[in-house]
C-alpha cells in the first residue's frame, strides 16, 4: 500500500508540467550548442536517437532498481517513516537537481528566453490539470480496495497500458499503425501474464463498480500522462530543467499539503525524519532520479516509450530478484516475458514500416 | 492418458499418406468439373479460398467438439473399452468414407489417372516414413512420463507449434515473414498461457532428459506433419480420397498390429466391442471426420493453417465448456486467448504484406 502511494504520488507530480503555451510560436532562440537545451533544433537525427535511447535506458534501469529497493525495504521490515514526508523530500531533491542543472546552463550559455526561470500566469494556469486528475485517481484508489485486494489491483493497473495508447492516439493525434496497436495489446497481456500468481483469478470476481473504478483510474492516469506530454512538447526549445523546476515546485506544494492533512499529528509527535534508514534515503534518491527520467522521456520520446520502458523494467526487476533474493520465476513469467519481447520487436517493426 | 493415446495414434495415421511421386510431372488429366478432385487446376482463386476456409472451419469445429466429447466421456466414467480397437475402427471408418467419396467421383467422371485407386511400389515406398516417426514419438511418450506428469506434458506439447513452424520453413522451403514468425511465437505462448493452472510451474522442474525428450517429440511430430504435406502436395491433381484411402489402409494395418501386441488377451477374453457406449461411438465418428479434415487442410491449405485451426479449437472448447459443464475460465485463459487472437490477426496481416 505505502509503496503504491509513494509511487503514484511521485508520478503524479512529474506530470505537473510547466505550461509554455504563451511562448508557443516564438522563433527558436540561442546559438546551437552541445547542451541538451537546444536538442531537437540543432542536433542531427542520430544524436536525437542517442539522447532518446539514453533517457529510455535510464528510466528502465531506475524503475527496475526502484522495485528492487522496495523488496529490500520490505525485507528490512515495515515502513516506519511517514510516506508523505518522503514524497516531499523526493520533490525537493528533484527541484534542487533541476536548479543545479540550470545553473550550469546559465554559466555556459547565459540566460535566454528558453532557459530563464521566470514564467507567466498564462503558462502556469494549465499545470494543475494533470495534478487534479492524479488527485482524483489517488482518491479513487482508497475506494477501489473495497472491491479488489492489492495483488488484484496490480493486475488491473495494466489497463493503464491500453488507456495510454488510446488517449495518446486521441489527444496527441499521433497515429499508431495496426502492428503497433497489436503490439500494445500484447504488451498489456504480456505484463499481466508475467504477474500472474495462483490467486490472480480472484480479480475476475471483481464486482461491476470495481471494474468501472479501475477503468476510470486507468483513463485518469493515461490522460494525465498524455496531457503532460502535450504541454511539455508544445515548445520543444524550452529548457527541460525549467519545465521540471515548475513541475517539482508544484509537487512540493501538493506534498506539503498532504503532510498537513494526512500526517500532521504523527510528524509533529515523532519528528519529520522519524524512522528514516539507509534504504529510505536510497529510495528517495532513486525516486527523484526516476522522476527526472520520466520527464526526459516525455520531452525527448513519448508516452508509448515510457510505457514500454517501465514494462520492460518490471521484467528486469524479476530477473534481478532471482539473483539478489533467490526468487523463483514462474512459467507465467516466462510466457509473459516472451509476449512482451515480441511486442517490443513488433513495435519497432511497425515504426519502421510507417516511415 | 488414454485420450492422448487415441488422439496421437489418430493423427499418426493421417500422415501415412499416399506417395504419388511416380506420377509427378504427368499432365493434368480429366475435364474440369465441379468436383473437389480437380480443385487447384480449374477453380478460381476465390473458389480455392472458399474450399480452404471450409476445410479449416470443419477442422476447427471437429477438433473442438472432440475435446468436448472427451470431457463428456470422462464424466460418464472411465474408459472401459479398448483404445486400440477404437483406433482401428476410426481408421476403418475413414477408409470407408474415402471409398464412398471415390465411388461417387467414378460415377460422375469415370476413372482417370488421378482418381484411380491402383498405385505402384514407387508411390507406396515413402508412406512408412511419417508413420515411423510417429511410432518413435509414441514410444517416447511412455518414457517422458517418468519425468513429467500429464498436465505438464500438455504444456510441453505446445513446443509442437514452434517445431512445425521451423520444419515447415526448412523442409517445404516456404518463407514465413518476420511478422508471421512473431505471430507463431505468440501462438505458442498464448496457447500455453491459456492452459496455465496453479500447478503448471512444476513443468519448470522437468529434468534435462525430460526436456530433451519433449523437444525430440516436438520435432518428430512436426517433421511427420510437414513431411506428409510434402508428399500430399507433390501432385496437387491427385484425388485426395485416393491419397486418404492409402493413408487409412496403412492406419488400419498399424492399428491391427497394435491390437495384437498390446490388447490381444483382453480383447480375446472380453470381446472386441467390450465397454462401447454411445459416447464411444460419437468419439469414433468424430475422430474419423476430423482425421479426414486434417488431410483436407494438408491438401488445400498447409501445416501452418492446421496449427492455427487446432489452437483456436482449443480455446473454443474452453468457452463451450463454460456453457455445457459450468467450467470457470481463468484469467490466464483470457490473457492467452487475447494473445492467440492477436497472433491470428498478425498472421493474416503478415500474409497480406508478403503478397
UniProtKB/TrEMBL annotation, chains A, B:
Q: What is the protein name stated in its UniProt record?
A: CMP-sialic acid transporter
Q: Which domain of life is it from?
A: Eukaryota
Q: How does it sit in the membrane?
A: Multi-pass membrane protein
Annotated source species: Stephania cephalantha
Q: Which UniProt keywords apply?
A: Membrane, Transmembrane, Transmembrane helix
PANTHER family documented for this protein: NUCLEOTIDE-SUGAR TRANSMEMBRANE TRANSPORTER (PTHR10231)
GO MF terms here are: pyrimidine nucleotide-sugar transmembrane transporter activity
Spell out where the chain crosses the membrane. 54-73, 85-103, 124-145, 151-172, 179-196, 208-232, 244-261, 273-295, 307-325, 331-349
- Which NCBIfam families does the record match to this protein? nst (TIGR00803)
GO cellular component term of the entry, any? Golgi membrane
Location comes to:
Membrane
Amino acid at each position: 500500500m505505502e509503496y503504491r502511494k509513494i509511487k503514484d504520488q511521485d508520478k503524479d507530480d512529474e506530470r505537473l508540467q510547466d505550461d509554455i503555451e504563451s511562448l508557443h510560436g516564438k522563433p527558436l532562440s540561442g546559438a546551437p550548442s552541445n547542451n541538451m537545451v537546444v536538442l531537437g533544433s540543432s542536433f542531427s537525427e542520430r544524436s536525437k536517437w542517442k539522447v532518446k535511447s539514453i533517457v529510455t535506458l535510464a528510466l528502465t534501469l531506475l524503475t527496475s532498481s526502484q522495485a528492487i529497493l522496495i523488496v529490500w525495504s520490505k525485507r528490512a521490515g515495515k515502513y516506519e517513516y511517514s510516506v508523505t514526508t518522503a514524497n516531499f523530500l523526493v520533490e525537493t531533491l528533484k527541484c534542487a537537481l533541476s536548479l543545479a542543472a540550470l545553473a550550469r546552463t546559465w554559466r555556459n550559455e547565459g540566460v535566454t528566453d528558453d532557459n530563464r526561470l521566470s514564467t507567466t500566469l498564462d503558462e502556469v494556469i494549465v499545470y494543475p490539470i494533470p495534478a487534479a486528475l492524479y488527485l482524483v485517481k489517488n482518491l479513487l484508489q482508497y475506494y477501489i480496495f473495497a472491491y479488489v485486494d492489492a495483488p488484484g489491483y496490480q493486475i488491473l493497473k495494466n489497463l493503464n497500458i491500453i488507456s495510454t495508447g488510446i488517449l495518446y492516439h486521441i489527444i496527441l493525434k499521433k497515429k499508431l499503425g495496426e502492428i503497433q496497436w497489436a503490439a500494445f495489446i500484447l504488451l498489456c497481456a504480456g505484463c499481466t501474464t508475467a504477474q500472474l500468481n495462483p490467486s490472480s483469478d480472484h480479480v475476475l470476481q471483481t464486482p461491476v463498480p470495481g471494474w468501472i473504478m479501475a477503468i476510470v483510474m486507468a483513463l485518469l492516469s493515461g490522460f494525465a500522462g498524455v496531457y503532460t506530454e502535450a504541454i511539455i512538447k508544445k515548445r520543444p526549445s524550452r529548457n527541460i530543467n525549467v519545465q521540471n523546476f515548475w513541475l517539482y515546485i508544484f509537487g512540493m506544494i501538493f506534498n506539503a499539503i498532504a503532510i498537513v492533512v494526512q500526517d500532521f499529528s504523527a510528524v509533529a509527535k515523532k519528528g519529520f525524519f522519524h524512522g528514516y534508514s539507509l534504504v529510505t534515503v536510497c529510495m528517495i534518491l532513486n525516486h527523484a532520479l526516476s522522476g527526472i527520467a520520466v520527464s526526459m522521456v516525455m520531452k525527448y520520446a513519448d508516452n508509448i516509450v515510457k510505457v514500454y520502458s517501465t514494462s520492460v523494467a518490471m521484467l528486469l526487476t524479476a530477473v534481478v530478484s532471482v539473483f539478489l533474493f533467490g526468487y523463483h520465476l514462474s512459467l507465467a513469467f516466462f510466457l509473459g516475458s516472451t509476449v512482451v519481447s515480441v511486442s517490443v520487436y513488433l513495435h519497432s517493426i511497425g515504426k519502421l514500416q510507417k516511415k
